What does this fold into?
Amino acid sequence: MSKSRLIQLTYYDPGKSVRLTVYADTIILDRNGEDSVISAVRFGGYPEMVKAMSDAIYGGATIEMPFNGKTRQLKSVPKQYQRQMSHDGLYAVGTLMVDDDPQAADQPDSEEEPEEGGEQQTIQPRRCYIFVPAGDRDRLFEELDRKTAAPLIQEFRDCVLDALIDRGELRPLEVFSLREKLDAWVLELRPNDENVVEILERGLECGAISIPGASPDQPDGFEGVENITGYLNTFGVTVADRIRDQFTPLFDPASEPLSEEVLAVNDYIQQKAGYSLYDAQLAVAEAVKRQLDRKGVALIIAECGSGKSVTRS
It folds into this structure.
């Protein structure tokens, strides 16, 4: 495949006699045994073609890509992508990025609460995806820190990254990009991030890493901290950042556009009822749409008068 040309992606459904072709400038693949799974992709073309291809990948279709004189089969993960689409006249660009596995436990078959002494829900391993500038280990470690609740500091960087890579729990993905120099990784986290905690414990035991301030002649960062006010003044921003990073919203209106479906529904409401949803209600509607796509059920919880009923409708 030429590095100077866009990457042709094709979907063909012989049963419905449907063939779609778009051209990508970036595609990131996870090699899982013999399979190549799409982790992220950005492609362009006519709007109807881009929308159809986005739907096909989101629905779990297999896509064809020419590679070194052969045709490579690319699999996709059904209903596990964030999707964005932008228009520029007759040309459109679609972007899909696979979602991290949710931090959730196995759900029991029954909706009833387990009886006292009964079997508890089991926290499941999860897979997270990291995209950083090529060769930037500092940024890689920062993104890792955002994915895990294990306590990490910059001094642990090389020990933790090298151990995760050696164990195969932090794997590089295959990146084809005509415009950007980037690295992509998939991070496997065991329940309660036990694998990261284990690396930290072993590093501390063997002396590969140490906690600042553990040695009498080393500063510990708590100089001048004498009460809770002093602690919050010193570490409040860091604590707030960690809390925010551990709870990723389904939809971030500050950095993501609303989907065409939600915008179309809002236009219909405007035409039929004479008013539009507020920005906050549109953001909730987008988040609910994404949750319904993923799990088939969603809850809207807010104070009285916030517009839960109109948003749900």
Notes: Helices lie at 47-58, 137-147, 157-166, 194-206, 228-246, 260-273, 279-295, 308-312. The mean pLDDT is 85. The first helix runs from residue 47 to 58.
